[in-house]
């Protein structure tokens, strides 16, 4: 028996990077995992295969977070395929273009707000009625340590993550009477495709070339984040809600994510 036996987790952006590590970890802990993705079918299939090879249960579900109709269809498909969702990890996300406020068009704010804040809230809204009926349910929002730094050239991304965090803290208080825990995990720079691209754009080097400049002599790995998410949805954190756990080795990091 593992800690999450009998529970169903939906991990958005679970096909690559941080979300993949979270999906694999929650499955290893016993949950049946819905691996959501946007367009990379092969990566989603590979994540499901890795979970199954380790003895877990998972299925892949395509839907772009931010396309509320597609998301509603996906939640129905997950319900039919795996059962009622009682763990949601809102992880899917994309970087902004890295321009200053002076050079950013309104569309870019809307694009980032849709993926990081409005889309996740529409997903959660569609799942809440069923989650309230579960003995326990958990929502974990993957945000970013960036909301504490607000570095230059980051406004659309930082604003969208800050909006998500504000909603999460509100939701935590609203849903406490229904047994739903809502917490935020805020990584610093993580070794993923996104992290790699950001470092190349800002610094020109490969991410692991910078290991010595990071806390503990290495950049944060997706598994570092997955372990914190696993704790937050476990029985060990039943009295924890409305919290923001920063996973950045104690900072400071390069201040770019
Ligand atoms: N990497 C970092 O340094 C870092 C630091 C702090 C916070 N974060 C946050 O951590 C989360 C994961 O980032 P990552 O580094 O793992 O990114 P990544 O390596 O680029 O992977 C992104 C994942 O999200 C999916 N995705 C993107 N947009 C989507 C959408 N609209 N709907 C559904 N799925 C979508 C992708 O699926 P497809 O491949 O199918 O598009 C992929 O599975 C993000 O919220 C990011 O903001 C990352």
Main sheet strand line-up = 3-2-1-4-5-6-7
Ligand species = NADP nicotinamide-adenine-dinucleotide phosphate
Mean pLDDT: 95
* Sheet with most strands: 7 strands, parallel
Number of distinct helices: 7
- Computed structural class: alpha/beta
- The CATH C-level class name: Alpha Beta
Distance between the termini: 37 Å
The tally of domains stands at 1
What is the name of the CATH superfamily?
NAD(P)-binding Rossmann-like Domain
Could you characterize the architecture of this molecule?
This protein is 43% helix and 15% strand. The chain is α/β, with parallel strands linked by helices and 257 residues long. It has a seven-stranded parallel sheet with strand order 3-2-1-4-5-6-7, with helices on both faces. It is globular, with a radius of gyration of 17 Å. NADP nicotinamide-adenine-dinucleotide phosphate is lined by residues 12-13, 15-19, 36-40, 43, 64-66, 91-94, 115, 142, 144, 187, 189-190, 192-195, 257. The site of NADP nicotinamide-adenine-dinucleotide phosphate has 31 residues, from α1, β2 and α6.
């Amino acid at each position: 028996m593992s800690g999450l036996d009998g529970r169903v987790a939906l991990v958005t952006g679970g096909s690559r990077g941080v979300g993949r590590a979270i999906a694999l970890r929650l499955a290893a802990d016993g949950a049946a995992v819905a691996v959501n993705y946007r367009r990379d079918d092969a990566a989603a299939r590979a994540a499901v295969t890795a979970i199954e090879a380790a003895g877990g249960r998972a299925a892949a579900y395509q839907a772009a977070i931010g396309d509320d109709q597609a998301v509603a269809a996906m939640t129905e498909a997950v319900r039919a395929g795996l059962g009622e969702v009682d763990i949601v990890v809102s992880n899917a996300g994309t970087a902004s273009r890295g321009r200053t406020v002076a050079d950013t068009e309104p569309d870019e704010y809307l694009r980032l707000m849709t993926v990081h804040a409005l889309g996740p809230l529409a997903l959660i809204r569609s799942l809440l009625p069923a989650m309230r009926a579960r003995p326990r349910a958990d929502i974990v929002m993957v945000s970013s340590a960036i909301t504490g730094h607000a570095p230059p050239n980051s406004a659309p991304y930082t604003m969208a993550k800050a909006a998500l965090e504000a909603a999460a803290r509100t939701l935590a208080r609203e849903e406490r009477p229904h047994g739903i825990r809502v917490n935020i995990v805020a990584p610093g720079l993580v070794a993923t495709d996104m992290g790699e691209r950001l470092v190349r754009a800002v610094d020109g080097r490969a991410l692991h070339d910078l290991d010595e400049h990071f806390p503990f002599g290495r950049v944060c790995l997706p598994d570092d984040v997955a372990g914190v998410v696993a704790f937050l949805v476990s029985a060990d954190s039943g009295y924890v809600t409305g919290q923001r756990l920063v996973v950045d080795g104690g900072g400071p990091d390069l201040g770019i994510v």
